[in-house]
Structures are given as structure tokens and as C-alpha cells.
Write a structure and sequence with these properties.
Chain A is an alpha+beta fold. Helix content of chain A is 48%, strand content 16%. About 8% of the residues of chain A have low confidence. Chain B contains eleven helices and twelve strands. In chain B, strands 3-2-1-4-5-12-11-6-7-10 form a ten-stranded mixed β-sheet, with helices on both faces. Classes of the chains: A alpha+beta, B alpha/beta.
Chain lengths: 946, 282
């Protein structure tokens, strides 16, 4: 037997406790055995470890090795500048580590937010005495006392309940309070009314419960397990960066070793050879790549924030662009979460009228405006029921309350004006019964609407009228009569089928449907009502003097009896209008090959109709309801998920995690939306978890990668577009960065083979990679998305940042043209200074320094042309405009200023071993820049023609 | 094979009583005799003695009411030594004992009573970690399995009988070793690819379950072993995890970590670590 199946005595026995609670000593012992009742983060890696990991990955280890060799060489061969080179390499390691850490950093506060949902103190009974203890000291077997406003500290089995209502929203996502009872229950454990779960809130009433699970073994703890324990996969960009850095490292090492060996065989001095090898490795490594990627992502996240999408992890910016499936909620994301009564229906008047509620939004009914309702008395009774079986309020034209209640009240007031009546009894709405009932003193006169006390009715006579509203499937079976032409008559099978038909047709239009019914009863006194209430009753305070008891007492003692033999009044259909931007956003997604899966708590017909309305489905979709999903094996679900159009209806938040897991297993890159506490595991599991900023809980927001500030689906699509642009932009600046590697490497190779003076020092290479290049590369990172970016399917997982096209264009095409220009100015300076082939220039010689400076300057100037060439891989720069990206202009200016400092300022000369060169060197590079631009334009033209 | 004699070690702690209930369920399905043993250490406090005796009495009544042949044993002495002697004396097939939280908080396999029982008892051992007092009716048992299974037949028998006792289905959960490529880092396999990698031993384990007519499903996972197991258990709301005892040496545990210890620390539901009878023992 499980805990919820047991009787009260058996519960106490199985948990080794008693009705007087645990003894203090036993509680201490159990605390020792089971630990504190607290939510912990399972296996959390401390922040410093994550930071330290940036210094120990493959690429960093290689650089440490290189730095170590430099220090060693510096020790044995002082004066070659190897010591400063070693320091510079360590600088590169630190810069890369900081930027990668920033990129991957994310404040992990989801578990902290979960902890906030548990109480601080709790009332328990130990040794027969009630006492306040810290919630973390609650142990299994503790008897806890619950009353209104308390948060439940641990999973517990009720042994007493007095009108106890608990809001299970943190676990189930349902906002309605649920009535709890202490009786043994034979159904599903999770649905059991005798269980209260940790983290839930007591809305009203009181109870006693025995704790059976604490801390991380509670259901709430399981959410923490899943939220903290889900193993997040590396994002596509992170994977790509690993791949790129490893490829580059291998190329750099191989080239370095090759030329070191070559130098050895041609008899070059060991230290010269070694310096050269280090230089060629440094030249091959794009040191500025990681900082540029990080800054580019940071700027992308800022642009997304302007589009109402707040990014929490930088790498998520790019992950968004690769998304293949979006699992989205319906209410509030695809729709406006603003209920409006779209149709009302009575048997008497079967035509359906539109816009009932909208007409009177915020405006009191004027004389004569509700005429149709006066003529149609059945409709009048329906509206009276709608008005009085309602907990929304209106103050100064502002409605407050549950969105559905507000819509009903607005429609009813619009139809029949204000009704002020005295409610004497209420059975609140509860999601299991799916209905609510109110009782008012007074009764309905023949040929009239309701005559309720306080409404100029015959209320003083002591009759009562009962009003019920709820789901059709729960209200209709309670009805034995129906109202037609203001006359009540027995309900026939035809009436029932007519009602069901209307119900289905309304749902097919995407409407949520609520049924209304009423019952007039014979006289009953208020004191009788008060005495006879069950646990479920909520009474108004005013109680008349206790006197007569009569047989009507039974009326309220049994809620089933109370809600029986009702008279069916009619139906209302509600629409939650789609957000106006959604259909276009969906069209965009479909064009971009992104599949959208709707996951909603609504009924399947309503969900399917809305999906059709917004263009999400065009044919008959596969619809899976919550109970079907529960019974469905993974293999079947996997198959169903392949359907092009699929909707999940009547879902609980817990279902999302399963759907997301299977989609990811199938290689999809999944974005999922969520707002509840129980959505947190799915938000963590998905490639991109998207929390709702307006309606989301703190836990969901903390678990997500992205927060939608306006809860709007269209904002997700805008963010995806931005994400795709960022991937393209990263490829652009990688091409740009690769283009300068060739003119850095080739002169080195010539130095090794042809014994020419060293064309470029390692410090100058670092000045380019980490200095002059940064802002122009960054400027490429903010290029606007190309117009047709959402017309292509998501990039295949195998398509990386680096492919043959990028390598060929960067290294070979643009790189070689740059190299020609760079070598031209290098030799130009050498020959002008009187150098001849074979002549050795001593270290520190002015001409040698001028030559290396010319090479440095050549690379910088050629990169100015390159930055324009790299703005698009297809589009002409003349079409894009030279001034349309202001940051590029800023980057070029900064590049020139920094270069001028390095070339002409004594400090720059000292640090980078440069010497001033004449204007002729600058001017000599101009034709090569133009050559590069035109060659690139030619390539693009050929590509466009293809 | 069958278990004819089951021994449950009981002490003053409530978790030993919960652990003994698993022994009780197993005894019932195997029609085995159940020994409920309390070994009182020297100079034990009388409260502890009282608690332990009360637990023995409750369990005795429960066992008898379930039609199980049961015998209570109260001895004083050193627990490991006395239990070992009892096992030898009565030819006990399997011993159930509860781990203590403090054992789990320090390294499980260093100088704890649990470790000693695991290492020294000549019969099979089921070490139970109780994290939840309620919910002994099992909805689903999670059985993580690795590549090569030692004592496959007995493990399958133990799992099957336990599942039978609680009328509970079993989920066999196989985690493949991470596959990494130099240029690509960790590679993620599709469920189909993971299915292909399920080793023969797991299939054989399934055949045993089929033989005992235990409804079961197989699942595959990936990632860090311990984390994957705890997440699976939390996600599927499993009530019990049954794992094989760690076969890693202390050095290997220090170098590569020890998934069994990690699951012991982080399990969201009750956990049994099973070690089969030593060959040639008794």
C-alpha cells in the first residue's frame, strides 16, 4: 500500500509516529538520518572551477607549453626577447580565458529561486505540544499544522483537514486552489486529495499532516534535481569553437614543427629556428577570435533585448539561430490571454451573436441597450447566472479577477446591467469538479429574469436560487430541466445532443466553452445554511439567529445533492484572441524550416481551431492529449513527433520535459517556452529555454536561457532571425581574420627558406591580432541580417563556422592578394634602404625595423580593404554602401590611430620594435587595396550569376 | 536459483526498519525464512535498545501477518562479526542492511559499517539507502546497467523477485561510454545508435526478467553516469533504484570518480546497492 491509500492509523504506523507527534529525541535522530529539509543544488560546479577550466583546455595547454618554452629559452638565450614573448602568450591565455568565461557564464539562480518557495518556519506537534521550528528541521514522521497562508514545508499525508484548500501551482501549473481531505484515496498518487506537497500554498482552511518525504526526496526536490541535474549539451557555437581552435592549433603546430625541422636540416641556428617556430605558431593562431566572438555575441544580445528578448547566456544568441523546433505555450504567447465572450447560446435563441462582451468594455449599460436580453428571457436568465456565479469585481470601470470571470462579468453587465445581490453560499471552483456554484437568497418570478434579494425581488420570502457554471461535460449531466421561452421543462435527449453539437462547433472555432445552469429551491433559513456546510463550503459572515431546523438542512449538507436537478440555462463561448503579429511570425518560421509544436492545457478541439486560425496547421494535425501521452511509450511518441503538424493538448508542465528530451534525442535543436515552476526542468533541458517575462515565475526565469519581455511568440522569431544573422556575421569576421593569417605566415616562410631578414616580429603579430583587428572584426559582427535570411532552412548541425568556402576565401583568395601587397612594401623598403639578396641585417638595425614595420603596416592597410570585402559573401559592397555600417568606419579610424602610434611614437617603437616609415609606403599599398576589392567584387559577381 | 534465508539487520534507526521491509517483501516472494537481527554494541543506551526492540517487534508482527516464517535475533557484540557468524550459522543467502546518512556523506567505501558488511559478508548483500519513508509500494524500479555484468543471473533474480514482491515494472537503464572525437568533442548518439550499443549482457538480463514474467522496458541514456541516473529517477518518479555494487578500486575511484557513491549521495528515491554472493563463500 502506498501512503495515500492508507487509513489515518496506518499512516501513523507506517511513518513510525503517533497523533501526538514525534518525541524530540526521535526527531533529532531522524534529522541525523535523513538530513535537513532543504533544497540543494546537486553536483554544482563552483564558479572558480568553471573559470579555471578555461586555463586547462586543449588550446590553453598548447599555449602554456609555448609560453613555458619561451621562458626556458629566455633563460638559456637571454636578449632574444623570448621572455617578453612568454609573458605576451600568457596574456593571450588570460584574455581568451576571460572572454570564454564571459561567453559561457550564467548566473545559476534557479535553485535559489526554488528555495524561496519553501517556508522559513513551520508549526509542528512534537511530544503532544505545538511548537514553531525552522522548516529545515522538519523530519519524516513530523506532524505539521497547516493553516491559511502557510507554505507546505515537505511532502505530507493529511490526517485532518478542515476546509483545507491548497494551491498546487508550483507543481502542476494549475492556478486553481484544490480542496484537500484526509480520507484514504485509491486513485493516482499525484492526484490524491490527501497529499500536500512541499512548496505549495495553503489558500484557506486548516489541517494536520504527517511528513513522509523531506528535502530533495520531495516532489519539489525532484524539480530541483531535474533543474540542477539536467546535463546541458554544448551549444552549436561552443562546439564549433572547440572544433575551430583545435583545427587551428593542429595547423599551427604542424606548420611550426615542419619549419623548425626544415630550418634544422638547412643548418639554421637552433635559437633562430626556435624563435621562428614560435613565431609561425603565433602567426597561425587567431588570438583575437574568442574576444571578438564574445563581444559580437554581447552586442547581439543587446540588439535582441531591444526586440524584447533578454538573453542570459551569450552563446544562446547563436544557438537561437540554429533552432529547428519551437515548442510553445498557447495562452499568452500565441494568444493575448485576454478572454472575451464571443458567443452566447440558449435553446430558445440558437443563433449566435458576436462580440457580446466587447461592446461594453469599461462602459456601463445605457438605457435601452440591453433590450434584446429583456425580450429574450432565457438569455436574461443566462446572463443573471453569469453575473451572480462570478467572483470578478468591478471598481470604477476596472475589472479585477480571473480573466474568464472578468470576461463573463463584462458580458453580463453589458447585457443586463449591474446586479447587486446577497450571496449566502459558495462552492468554489475546483479543477477536479471543473465547476463552481453560488447560492443567493431570492427566487425568479414567472415571466421575469431572476429576482434576487437586493435586486428589487421577492427576496424577503426566503426562497433561494442556486447558480452553477463550469465545463459542459460536468454541468450538463447535472441538469434535468432546460429553460425554453422562459419556461422550465424536462431536458430531452435531443436537447442534450443539440447542446453537445453546439459545444463542439464552438470548440472547433477555437472557443473555450462554459455551461450555465440554475435551480430555484424552496425556502431555507441562513442559519440552517451555516450549520449544514461541508468542508467545501465557504460561508458569508452574516448568520441569522439560530432557530428552526427543518428538512431543508439536507440541502446544503451534501454538495452532490445541492448541485442536482439543475435547469440548463445556456452556453458561452470565449475567445482568447491571437496576438496580431503571430500569424506572420508563424509564416516566417515555416519559411525558415522551423517546426512549431503547440503545447497547451486547453482542450484539443480548441487548440486545433486556434492553431488553424493562426496558420500553425493547414491540414488535420496529429493531436495528442495528456492522458494519451502518459500511456504512450517513447518509441511511439518519437514517431508521432515526426508528423509535420502536431499539437499537444490538455498537457501538464511535466510533459514538456519528455517531449523536449525526445526531440533533442532525435537531433533537433529545440526552443521551449515556459512560465511555471514545473517548467524549469524543460527550460533547462532544451537547447534554448524561453521564460515569460511578464507572467513567468522567478524559477522559470532563472532556469531559462532567454526571457521574453513581452511574452510574445513573434519576439522569439525576431530573436531567431538575429541569431541566424550572428552566425553569418561570425563567419564573416572569421574570413576577415583568416585573411590576415596568410600575410603573417608567408613572409615567415620566406624568411626560413630564402634567408631574408625577419619580415615581422611576434609582438607585431600580436599587435595585429589583438589590437588593430578587434574593432573592425567586431563591426562585421553587427552587420544587419541579410534580407532573405529567414528563407533558408536551419543550418545543418554539421555545417560549421569553418568550411572549405571560408578557408579558401580567407586563407587563399583574400590572403594571397594581401600577401602580394605586404611583400611589395616590405621589399620596397628593404631595397630602398640599400639591402641586397643574401645580406644579413643585424638585430635592431634601423632598416630591418623599418622593413618589419612596412610588413606590419601592409597587413593593417590591406585589412582595411578586407573589412569591406568581408561584409557579405555574395552582395556587392557598392550595393551595401561603404558608410552603412558606422562601426566599421570607427574601427578603421581606431586601427589607423593605433597603427600610427605603433609606427611613429617612440613608445610604440620600443614595445613593438618598429621604426617610422615614409608616406610612400602607405601610398604604395593603395593600388593593392583596390585590386583586392575589385577581385572580390568579381568573385561575388560570378557567384551571384551562378 | 532461489533465496531460502534472508536476514535483515535492524537497529534503533528508522531507516533500518524501512530497509527491513524490502527484506520482508523479498522473503515473501521467495518463500524464504526471514531473520530479523539486532546486534547491540557494548554499553548501548537503553533508549536505543528499546527503539530497536520495538522495531523488531513491529517487523515481526508484519512478517507473521504476511505468512512469512520469521525469527528475531538479539545479540550483543560487534555488528559485522556477529552478522557474519549468523550468516554462516544459518546459511543465510542475502543480508539487507541500511546505510547511514553519515556513511554516505563521507566517502562511502572508506571505513564505514556499510563498507565492512559489503566487503566481509560471505553471502549476497543488499545495502539500502532510505531517503523517503513513505511510498514503499513501488510504481517502478530503475535498474541502471553497465556494459559487462558480473553475477548477472543472481542480480536478475534479485531484481525480478523484488519487482514481483511489489508488483512493480522495471526499467533497465543503459548508459554508453561517452564517445569523443578530437575535433568535435563529445559526440551525441541518437537513440537508435544507442540501442545498437546495448551490450549482450543487458539483453541477457532482459531474458531473465522475461523468464520471471516481470514487465520491463529498456531505456538508454548518455552523459555523466551518476547524474543521468538521478535525473532519470527524478524525471520518471521511480521509487527505487537497484544498482550493482561498485567494482572500482579506491585508486580508480579517486582518479575517475565513483558513480555508485555519487548516486548514493544524490539519489532522489530509495536505493539498493546489490552485491552478489562471493563465489565459493559459505
Amino acid at each position: 500500500m502506498n501512503i495515500h491509500n492508507l487509513s489515518k492509523d496506518a499512516v501513523l504506523k507506517s511513518l513510525l509516529t503517533s497523533a501526538t507527534g514525534l518525541a524530540e529525541a526521535e526527531a533529532v535522530k531522524r534529522l541525523h538520518e535523513y538530513g535537513l529539509n532543504e533544497i540543494k543544488e546537486a553536483g554544482k560546479s563552483p564558479l572558480y572551477k568553471k573559470f579555471m577550466a578555461q586555463f586547462t583546455h586543449f588550446f590553453a595547454v598548447l599555449l602554456w607549453f609555448a609560453a613555458g618554452l619561451c621562458f626556458l629559452s629566455g633563460y638559456f638565450q637571454p636578449g632574444e626577447g623570448l621572455l617578453s614573448l612568454g609573458i605576451a602568450i600568457i596574456g593571450v591565455i588570460i584574455i581568451n580565458a576571460i572572454f570564454t568565461f564571459i561567453q559561457e557564464y550564467r548566473a545559476e539562480k534557479a535553485i535559489e529561486a526554488l528555495k524561496e518557495l519553501l517556508p522559513f518556519n513551520v508549526k509542528v506537534i512534537r511530544e503532544g505540544q505545538s511548537q514553531d521550528i525552522r522548516a529545515e528541521n522538519v523530519v519524516p514522521g513530523d506532524l505539521i499544522l497547516l493553516s491559511e497562508g502557510d507554505k507546505v514545508p515537505a511532502d505530507a499525508r493529511l490526517i485532518e483537514a478542515n476546509r483545507l484548500m491548497v494551491n498546487n501551482a508550483p507543481l502542476t501549473g494549475e492556478s486553481d486552489a484544490r480542496l484537500r481531505s484526509h480520507e484514504a484515496f485509491n486513485g493516482d498518487y499525484f492526484e490524491s486529495p490527501n497529499i500536500v506537497f512541499a512548496g505549495t500554498l495553503v489558500v484557506s482552511g486548516m489541517g494536520r499532516a504527517v511528513t513522509y518525504a523531506t528535502g530533495m526526496s520531495t516532489e519539489f526536490g525532484k524539480i530541483a534535481h531535474l533543474t540542477g541535474g539536467v546535463q546541458e549539451r554544448l551549444g552549436p557555437l561552443q562546439k564549433e569553437i572547440i572544433r575551430v581552435t583545435r583545427i587551428v592549433a593542429v595547423i599551427a603546430m604542424a606548420t611550426g614543427v615542419f619549419f623548425f625541422s626544415l630550418g634544422f636540416f638547412i643548418g639554421r641556428d637552433f635559437w633562430q629556428n626556435f624563435l621562428f617556430a614560435i613565431g609561425i605558431i603565433i602567426a597561425n593562431v587567431p588570438e583575437g577570435l574568442l574576444p571578438t566572438v564574445t563581444l559580437s555575441l554581447a552586442m547581439g544580445s543587446q540588439r535582441m533585448a531591444k526586440k524584447k528578448a533578454l538573453i542570459k547566456t551569450l552563446t544562446s544568441v547563436e544557438t537561437l539561430g540554429s533552432v529547428t523546433v519551437i515548442c510553445t505555450d498557447k495562452t499568452g504567447t500565441l494568444t493575448q490571454n485576454r478572454m472575451e465572450v464571443e458567443r452566447v447560446w440558449t435553446l430558445e435563441r440558437q443563433e449566435q451573436r458576436q462580440g457580446v462582451g466587447r461592446r461594453e468594455e469599461g462602459v456601463e449599460r445605457k438605457e435601452g441597450e440591453g433590450e434584446i436580453f429583456r425580450k429574450n428571457n432565457s438569455l436574461n436568465m443566462l446572463m443573471t447566472t453569469a453575473c451572480l456565479c462570478n467572483n470578478a469585481t468591478v471598481e470604477n470601470g476596472n475589472y479585477k479577477g480571473d480573466p474568464t470571470d472578468v470576461a463573463i462579468l463584462r458580458a453580463a453587465r453589458g447585457a443586463i446591467g449591474d446586479l447587486k445581490a446577497e450571496r449566502i453560499y459558495e462552492i468554489p471552483f475546483d479543477s477536479e469538479r471543473k465547476r463552481m456554484t453560488t447560492v443567493y437568497e431570492g427566487s425568479r418570478g414567472k415571466g421575469q429574469g431572476a429576482r434576487i434579494k437586493g435586486q428589487g425581488s421577492r427576496g424577503g420570502e426566503g426562497g433561494v436560487t442556486l447558480f452553477t457554471k463550469g465545463a459542459v461535460e460536468t454541468v450538463l449531466p447535472l441538469c434535468t430541466r432546460i429553460l425554453e421561452d422562459n419556461e422550465e421543462r424536462p431536458i430531452s435527449d435531443d436537447d442534450r445532443s443539440s447542446i453537445m453539437q453546439t459545444y463542439h462547433s464552438m470548440m472547433d472555432e477555437g472557443l473555450r466553452v462554459i455551461a450555465f445552469a440554475f435551480k430555484e429551491t424552496v425556502t431555507v433559513r441562513k442559519d440552517v445554511i451555516a450549520r449544514s456546510g461541508s468542508d467545501e463550503a465557504i460561508f458569508i459572515e452574516e448568520i441569522a439567529s439560530p432557530s428552526a431546523r427543518n428538512d431543508k438542512e439536507e440541502l446544503f449538507s451534501d454538495k452532490n445533492n445541492l448541485e442536482s436537478n439543475l435547469t440548463f440555462a445556456g452556453l458561452m463561448g470565449f475567445e482568447d484572441p491571437p496576438r496580431p503579429e503571430v500569424p506572420d511570425a508563424i509564416k516566417k518560421c515555416q519559411g525558415a524550416g522551423i517546426k512549431i509544436i503547440m503545447i497547451t492545457g486547453d482542450a484539443s478541439r480548441t487548440a486545433a481551431a486556434i492553431a488553424k486560425q493562426i496558420g500553425l496547421v493547414k491540414n488535420t494535425p496529429v493531436v495528442i492529449e495528456g492522458h494519451e501521452l502518459n500511456a504512450m511509450p517513447d518509441s511511439v511518441l518519437r514517431e508521432r513527433l515526426l508528423s509535420p503538424e502536431i499539437i499537444f493538448a490538455r498537457m501538464m508542465p511535466a510533459h514538456k520535459m519528455r517531449i523536449v528530451s525526445i526531440l533533442e534525442d532525435e537531433g533537433e535543436r529545440v526552443a521551449v517556452t515556459g512560465d511555471g515552476v514545473n517548467d524549469a526542468p524543460a527550460l533547462k533541458k532544451a537547447n534554448i529555454g524561453i521564460a515569460m517575462g511578464m507572467t513567468g515565475t522567478d524559477v522559470a526565469r532563472e532556469a531559462a536561457d532567454m526571457v521574453l519581455l513581452d511574452d510574445n511568440f513573434a519576439s522569439i522569431v525576431n530573436a531567431i532571425e538575429e541569431g541566424r544573422a550572428i552566425f553569418e556575421n561570425i563567419r564573416k569576421f572569421m574570413t576577415y581574420i583568416f585573411a590576415h593569417l596568410t600575410p603573417e605566415v608567408i613572409p615567415y616562410i620566406m624568411f626560413a627558406i630564402f634567408k631574408i631578414p625577419l619580415p615581422l616580429t611576434v609582438m607585431q603579430i600580436l599587435a595585429i591580432d589583438l589590437g588593430t583587428e578587434t574593432i573592425p572584426a567586431l563591426a562585421l559582427g553587427i552587420e544587419k541580417p541579410e534580407a532573405n535570411i529567414m528563407e533558408y532552412p536551419p543550418r545543418p548541425e554539421k555545417q560549421g563556422l569553418i568550411d572549405r568556402v571560408v578557408l579558401f576565401r580567407g586563407y587563399i583568395f583574400l590572403g594571397l592578394i594581401s600577401t602580394i601587397g605586404v611583400l611589395f612594401v616590405y621589399f620596397h623598403v628593404l631595397f630602398q634602404g640599400g639591402w641586397q639578396w643574401g645580406m644579413d641585417l643585424p638585430s635592431g638595425n634601423l632598416l630591418a625595423r623599418q622593413a618589419t614595420t612596412a610588413t606590419f603596416l601592409g597587413i593593417v592597410i590591406m585589412q582595411i580593404a578586407n573589412v569591406f570585402a568581408c561584409r557579405s559573401s555574395r552582395e556587392s559592397v557598392f550595393r551595401l554602401g561603404f558608410f552603412s555600417n558606422k562601426l566599421i568606419l570607427l574601427g578603421i579610424v581606431s586601427e589607423i590611430i593605433l597603427t600610427a602610434f605603433i609606427v611613429y611614437h617612440p613608445w610604440g617603437n620600443k614595445v613593438f620594435d618598429t621604426a617610422p616609415v615614409g608616406l610612400n609606403v602607405w601610398l604604395a599599398l593603395v593600388p593593392f587595396c583596390l585590386m583586392l576589392l575589385f577581385a572580390e567584387e568579381l568573385r561575388k559577381w560570378v557567384l551571384r550569376r551562378k | 536459483m532461489t533465496y531460502r534465508k534472508v536476514l535483515a539487520a535492524v537497529n534503533e534507526f528508522s531507516n533500518s526498519e524501512i530497509a527491513a521491509r524490502y527484506a520482508l517483501a523479498l522473503s515473501k516472494t521467495c518463500h524464504a525464512k526471514l531473520f530479523l537481527a539486532f546486534i547491540a554494541e557494548e554499553n548501548i543506551h537503553k533508549d536505543k535498545l528499546r527503539h530497536a526492540e520495538a522495531a523488531l517487534e513491529r517487523l515481526f508482527i508484519e512478517a507473521e501477518s504476511n505468512g512469512i516464517e520469521v525469527e528475531n535475533i538479539i545479540e550483543s557484540g560487534e555488528p559485522v562479526k556477529n552478522i557474519t557468524a549468523l550468516v554462516r550459522e544459518h546459511n543465510v543467502d542475502i543480508v539487507f542492511a541500511a546505510t547511514r546518512r553519515e556513511d554516505v556523506m563521507k566517502r562511502f567505501f572508506i571505513k564505514t559499517l556499510s563498507r565492512q558488511l559489503m566487503m566481509k559478508l560471505p553471502c549476497s548483500v543488499a545495502m539500502v539507502r532510505v531517503v523517503k519513508m513513505g511510498g514503499l509500494h513501488l510504481k517502478n524500479i530503475l535498474v541502471p546497467l553497465r556494459g559487462r555484468l558480473t553475477d548477472l543471473e543472481e542480480r536478475a533474480y534479485f531484481t525480478a523477485r523484488l519487482a514481483e514482491g511489489f508488483n512493480s515494472p522495471v526499467t533497465l537503464f543503459h548508459l554508453h561510454k561517452p564517445i569523443t572525437g578530437f575535433f568535435h568533442g563529445e559526440l551525441y548518439l541518437t537513440p537508435f545508435q544507442r540501442e545498437q550499443r546495448i551490450p549482450k549482457d543487458v539483453e541477457e538480463f532482459r531474458e531473465h526478467l522475461n523468464r520471471y514474467k516481470i514487465p520491463h522496458e529498456k531505456k538508454t541514456g548518455h552523459g555523466r553516469i551518476a547524474r543521468a541516473i538521478t535525473v532519470e529517477a527524478a524525471h520518471k518518479r521511480n521509487d527505487l533504484v537497484v544498482m550493482g555494487a561498485s567494482e572500482r578500486t579506491l585508486l580508480s575511484s579517486l582518479m575517475k570518480g565513483n558513480p555508485v557513491e555519487e548516486v548514493l549521495r544524490e539519489t532522489p528515491c530509495n536505493l539498493i546497492i546489490f552485491r552478489a554472493r562471493k563465489k565459493g563463500a559459505l
